[in-house]
Amino acid sequence: MPESEPRQPHEKRTEPIVSGGRVRRPGRGRQIGLTAFVLVVVAGLLGGGYLWFSPRDETMRITGYAIGTVDRRTLQDTVELGGSVTARHQATVTAPEPGFIARLFVSEGDWVERGERVAELDSESLRDSLASLERSIERSIREFERFLLQHEYATARHERQRRALEARVDDAVSDLRETERLAETGSVAAVAVRDARRRVDEAREALAGHEMDVAEAVALHQISRENYEDDIAFTRREIAALERRLAATLIAAPISGRVVMISSAARTSGELLQQHQTILTLADTRDPLVETEIEEHYVSRIEVGRSVEVEIGGTRFVGTIERIGQLASVPGDGGAPVVEIDVGIDLGGGEILPGSSALVEVLIGETQGALVLPRGPYLTSGNRRSIYRVDGATATRVDVEYGTITASWVEIRSGLSYQDVVITSSYAAFVDRQTVILGGNP
Residue 357 and residue 85: Cα distance in Å, rounded? Predict the structure, then answer.
């Protein structure tokens, strides 16, 4: 239809709208256009749904892929266990007495030999106790010497008294004999004889009483002497013990090892350490032990003496299982019960600090002649139940069953055969395709 002249502003259009000789009513054109638009949208949705839900055309071409060949190998089934390094020989050096650190002879990281001085403790209370005992034993010894001297003088007096009493007895006996002789001649009366005999008896009783007193004094002296000697000996033992304790304040290393920790209290000047408070820790870092745990159901598949691989700080070592615990426990996260195992490692003269993390690889079984593929991205980009097998210029998805998966290999238990070639790179771009076309060499 020819273009009409431009309308002037505010100009009304009076002629009827015609098309093909027929008069069109106002609004009819807009209804027809809207209907056509709706039909196009519906057709698009139906077509898209068909393309989305209908089987895809398996003609996708891929490039830049990697392939691998199914091989036969002896596959070792291993488990990796996280553990930590500890020192087989470790010692905590503590304060033998309450006191202050007078001097530290070592720093953290130093290597010390057994018996080497590591610290000196200043124990004022110990020195005061020793001085008090030394004064006490000096007094005890002086008192003991006075006691012995007194006994010597008492013994001399007793001896003089004994001689005097013996002389009295002799005199009384002589007097009795003379009186008896005179009585026989009638020179004295019988009463004189009786008096003489009484004096003899009294003299003898006095001598016997004296000897009894002397025996008692000697016995008491012996007891007192033994008490003095015991007290002095006891004090000497106490002094010797205090001297040993004072000597122990010059602290020596109980083992050969590296100083792995010095306590803050020992490093702080003027801080009082209590008895048995930690000063420092020594560890023989040349002879480490790895402590780890293994799930209970694997215990029957390992044994003491079996070699294992241990990785510490990126370095691999050969280790040996030295102990398998006899008690299972449930981890804090509620997983499977675990059993402790200790692994010894030979560093060949090297050292490892206690507390280092370790990864222990334990062989729990072997499969001879297993079908394997090299481990690759295909494991994580698919559904782990299928793989793309190469058949000439195409690759077809097949269902498989995986077995043991190691750091390098994946066991194929079913779905593939020896020498089959498969795509080992990522399947992310075509995981929904049954078949893909291979575009050129991988």
Answer: 6
Residues 274 and 294 in one domain: no
How many structural domains are present in the chain?
A: 4
Three-state SS sequence of the chain: CCCCCCCCCCCCCCCCCEECCEECCCCHHHHHHHHHHHHHHHHHHHHHHHHHHCCCCCCCEECCCCEEECEEEEEEEEEEEEEEEEECCEEEEECCCCEEEEEECCCCCCEECCCCEEEEEECHHHHHHHHHHHHHHHHHHHHHHHHHHHHHHHHHHHHHHHHHHHHHHHHHHHHHHHHHHHHHHCCCCHHHHHHHHHHHHHHHHHHHHHHHHHHHHHHHHHHHHHHHHHHHHHHHHHHHHHHHHHHHCEEECCCCEEEEEECHHHHCCCCCECCCCEEEEEECCCCEEEEEEEEHHHHHHCCCCCEEEEEECCEEEEEEEEEEEEEEECCCCCCCCEEEEEEEECCCCCCCCCCCEEEEEEEEEEEEEEEEEECCCHHHHCCCCEEEEEECCEEEEEECEEEEECCCEEEEEECCCCCCEEECCCCCCCCCCCEEEECCCC
Closest-CA residue to 148 (of 207, 208, 232, 209): 232
Q: Are residues 137 and 235 in the same domain?
A: yes
Q: Is residue 27 part of a domain?
A: no
Backbone angles phi, psi at 211, to 5 degrees: -60, -35
In a domain, 45, yes or no: no
Judge whether 203 lies within some domain.
yes
User: For the segment 228-280, what is each residue's pLDDT rounded down to a tens digit?
Assistant: 999 999 999 999 999 999 999 999 999 999 999 999 999 998 899 999 999 99
139 and 154 in one domain?
Answer: yes
Domain enclosing residue 211, as ranges: 125-247
The verdict on residue 344 lying in a domain is: yes
| 376-410 confidence digits (pLDDT tens) | 999 887 766 899 999 999 999 999 999 888 878 89
| Boundary (domain end) residue, out of 366, 396, 429 | 366
Domain shared by 243 and 130, yes or no: yes
Shared-domain flag, residues 430 and 375: yes
Q: Same domain, yes or no, for 254 and 105?
A: yes
143 and 230 part of one domain: yes
Q: For residue 47, what pLDDT band results from cuts at 50, 70 and 90?
A: very low
